[in-house]
Design goal:
25 helices; 17 strands; alpha/beta
């Protein structure tokens, strides 16, 4: 091997010793390869630099690879991005240019074939890349591990470099990674839109329901209760897709043999079939979701909900209401002080939460019915659901129920996919995000011995979920004793948790509330002081250095406040902040002062909204 190879390999082993040990066999294999066995050939470009050819396709410019790399990395914005992700890299010209230009940013290199990396080590000097302080390698890593690594970054904060020629040798792998990144961007966009639309509702609901955190049990008491049973106890998650119709006639018999976990949208259909589910899951704070329980009662069911749910949800007639861990900052703040309720997964759909509840209970077999993630037969929901009933109630001559159905079918980039029978199914972009969540989480669960099945093969096919025959489930013996033991174990755990909290001397709800109000007051004072200082610097620019120094002290105090995370709920999103700051002065010092004033003003507005909602609750 040549000196470039030896230098690169030495740096690689020094920087990533564990990875080098894992790839030791591949390194030996590569060093034994002949010239003709290398993944690509290397030749001189017109300007004298090296370029590479693989399967007849150039990986870089044949004229000036270095200048091409500079142009490629120019799309990276230090103001917008925090990491550069290279899906493949050829000889490494572009990552090297990135490393030189952005030494403080993360550099992530993804390559599923170690031989391609080593071939680049053999041909080009990788010193700039291998000495980059924030270099991250994903070499020969499984697809799931690669996707998990990239999911740690906010999609809006990464700049992805993906040249088809770099990826041709592992096209399917890179397509799947790219698809995961697209879904991540869609998810982040949905989350941002949802936050901007509903944050104030979440705050209002949370404040009105705060006292529930001090009185209601959490789902934590059910977690693991099924795993401890001597008899295996299956769980069935009931979603509100049109295919649920095929399961409803068997629901009473299924309840004898499994724990029924029903999402809020499917409750009306279950009760109409004469069956009260064991659990009802409602975690969306919108009033429209609370309507799914309106005029209904399930005295033998346990309702699982969120502290930010619409307040009327807590008046639902049921056996018991329990809380899952809150997804919202104020609920999380109180849970840290009063004790956790038990977190459940959230993939954008209540069905994801219901499935994760079944998994967290310790179920080894989870069956899903009615999770169509598409529109079998052109229907959007099971007949009789609140969605369908509302469409009929709101219909008129100019906007019929059929118009509402058509809007649902066509409003989110409709596309075609396959159901479990291989038949064509109309779906849309929203469903792909949920499908991806189930695919990735069911894979993790399967590795832990938990298998997920579907009882409705008319649904969108999701990799890792198998079709199960309802008849086979009905052939199982009743699980009456196992279900009774499951609920008994949960009550015993709840009693033990209360005893433990008493022994730990956790503060009362009233004490936590008083402390939170006090911390909000301190935040308000700091924000007002920051605004005054900014105005002082704007009026007299000579005092700007002293102002910035004092603002740094205020910022440190704000960052140390436990209440700041709660206030973040109604603080503007990054996208909204960019809009608000669009007309600020461009002169750097003045812009910095004006931007700081904007931040303190928005913080003060958020704190005052909390204070007002708490006063009203």
């Amino acid at each position: 091997m040549n000196s470039i190879w030896n230098k690169n390999l030495s740096l690689f082993k020094e920087r990533f010793p564990a990875l080098a040990d894992m790839l030791a066999g591949d390194i030996q294999k590569f060093e034994a390869l002949g010239e003709a066995e290398l993944p690509f050939s290397v030749e001189s470009a017109k300007n004298g630099e090296l370029t590479a050819i693989e399967a007849g396709v150039p990986l870089h410019s044949k004229y000036n690879p270095g200048r091409e790399a500079q142009q490629q990395v120019s799309q990276f914005s230090a103001e917008k991005h925090r990491a550069g992700v290279f899906l493949g890299f050829g000889l490494g010209y572009a990552p090297a240019a990135f490393a030189r230009q952005h030494p403080d940013m993360q550099l992530v290199l993804v390559e599923p074939d170690a031989m391609h990396l080593f071939a680049a080590f053999r041909a080009a000097d990788w010193q700039d890349i291998l000495r980059h302080p924030q270099l991250v390698f994903a070499v020969q890593a499984p697809l799931d591990s690669t996707v998990a690594l990239l999911s740690q970054y906010r999609s809006s904060s990464i700049c992805v470099f993906a040249v088809p020629a770099w990826q041709a040798h592992a096209k399917e792998f890179f397509e799947k990674v790219g698809g995961a990144l697209v879904r991540s961007r869609q998810k982040d966009e949905i989350n941002t839109n949802t936050l901007e639309k509903f944050a104030h509702l979440w705050l209002s609901n949370s404040c009105r329901n705060l006292h529930q955190l001090g009185t209601l049990d959490g789902v934590s008491k059910f977690m693991g209760a099924a795993a401890a049973l001597q008899e295996e106890l299956p769980f069935i998650v009931l979603a509100a897709g049109p295919s649920l119709d095929s399961v409803l006639p068997h629901l009473a018999a299924l309840k004898e043999r499994a724990v029924l976990v029903c999402v809020d949208t499917a409750l009306h259909s279950c009760l109409a079939a004469g069956v009260e589910p064991d659990f009802i899951v409602l975690v969306d704070p919108q009033y429209a979701c609370a309507m799914h329980l309106e005029f209904l009662a399930a005295p033998s069911s346990v309702l699982i909900t969120e502290s930010a749910a619409w307040p009327s949800v807590f008046r639902f007639c049921c056996r018991e209401t329990v809380l899952c861990g809150s997804l919202f900052p104020i609920g999380q703040y109180f849970e840290r002080q009063l004790g956790s309720k038990g977190m459940l997964g959230a993939g954008g759909s209540v069905t994801t939460t219901a499935w994760d509840f079944a998994r967290s209970c310790g179920a080894r077999d989870i069956y899903i019915a009615g999770m169509d993630l598409g529109f079998p037969g052109g229907q959007t929901h099971i007949r009789g659901s609140q969605f369908e009933e509302r469409a009929h109630r709101c219909s008129g001559r100019l906007h019929t129920a059929e118009n509402s159905t058509a809007d649902s079918l066509m409003s989110a980039h409709p596309s075609y996919a396959k159901d479990y029978n291989g038949n064509t199914l109309l779906t849309d972009s929203r469903m792909s995000v949920f499908s991806w969540w189930f695919e990735s989480n069911c894979a993790k669960a399967r590795a832990a011995g938990v298998q997920t099945y579907t009882l409705t093969p008319q649904s969108l096919a999701i990799a890792g979920i198998q079709v199960a025959d309802t008849a086979a489930l009905l052939a199982r013996p009743p699980a009456t004793a196992a279900k009774a033991a499951f609920f008994c174990a949960a009550q015993e755990r709840a009693a033990a948790e209360k005893k433990l909290r008493a022994q730990q001397g956790l503060p009362s709800y009233e004490a936590v509330l008083d402390s939170f109000i006090s911390k909000l007051g301190t935040l308000s004072e700091l924000a007002q002081k920051g605004i005054r200082l900014c105005e002082k610097g704007i009026r007299n620019r000579l005092k700007a250095p002293q102002v910035f120094q004092e603002l740094s002290g205020i910022d440190r105090q704000i960052l140390c406040s436990e209440a700041k995370e709660a206030a973040a709920l109604v603080f503007p999103t990054e996208r909204h902040l960019q809009e608000l700051s669009g007309n600020l002065p461009q002169e750097p010092q003045l812009r910095s002062l004006c931007y700081s004033k904007l931040i303190y003003s928005e913080l003060l507005k958020a704190v005052r909204e909390y204070q007002e909602n708490i006063r009203r609750s």
